[in-house]
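Researcher: Let's do a round of design. I'm pasting the structure tokens now; please hold your answer until I've finished.
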């Protein structure tokens, strides 16, 4: 395998040095630099071109998604792997959209680390197995929410919006020129369809749908 020039940027020096030590037995990987401050990244990468950058996603005082975009713009040949202690779907999606080629949990073992570096170097994407499982679960939940969204009629959606705006059933009836009994019937149907228990659950669902 060709030589892989590796850069490591992690706010915690112990982690950066630990990663370098973990990869040191693999002669085809050369750790070119380890640093702890994101402000040193651009100058260091300008001096020492690297093929793969392992980037801590919790660098202080920096929007790492924005940093990924800047690095991809200025160093398009470098493949970035984000590293984090968390596996939040929002963060994973943001970083990957910003141009990262991979996402690693800092709890990874040597095999996972090696596979990540080699995979992105070869032009592939790499996402930690635990993170993949989480993303699949998030996708499943998102599809469930979409299905829920489709089951409401136009009138039910309208009433849900008014409930979220704290209109009483009487106020809703007056506003829509329907009977109080009609509003209560719609409210009951909405609760059943969305599988919530009360008005608080309806309001939470309305926020999910962006109605308020």
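Researcher: That's everything. Go ahead.
Model: Designed sequence:
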């Amino acid at each position: 395998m060709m030589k892989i020039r590796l850069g490591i940027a992690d706010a915690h020096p112990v982690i950066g040095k630990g990663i370098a030590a973990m990869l040191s037995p693999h002669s085809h990987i050369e750790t070119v630099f380890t640093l702890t401050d994101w402000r040193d990244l651009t100058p260091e990468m300008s001096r020492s071109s690297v093929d793969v950058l392992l980037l801590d996603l919790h660098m202080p005082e920096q929007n790492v998604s924005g940093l990924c975009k800047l690095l991809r713009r200025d160093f398009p040949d470098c493949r970035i792997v984000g590293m984090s202690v968390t596996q939040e779907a929002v963060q994973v999606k943001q970083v990957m959209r910003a141009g990262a080629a991979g996402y690693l949990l800092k709890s990874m073992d040597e095999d996972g680390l090696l596979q990540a570096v080699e995979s992105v170097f070869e032009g592939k994407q790499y996402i930690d197995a635990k993170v993949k499982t989480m993303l699949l679960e998030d996708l499943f939940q998102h599809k469930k929410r979409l299905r829920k969204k489709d089951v409401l009629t136009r009138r039910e959606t309208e009433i849900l919006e008014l409930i979220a705006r704290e209109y009483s059933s009487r106020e809703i009836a007056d506003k829509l020129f329907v009977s109080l009994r009609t509003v209560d019937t719609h409210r009951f149907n909405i609760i059943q369809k969305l599988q919530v228990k009360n008005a608080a659950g309806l309001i939470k669902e309305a926020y999910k749908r962006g109605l308020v």
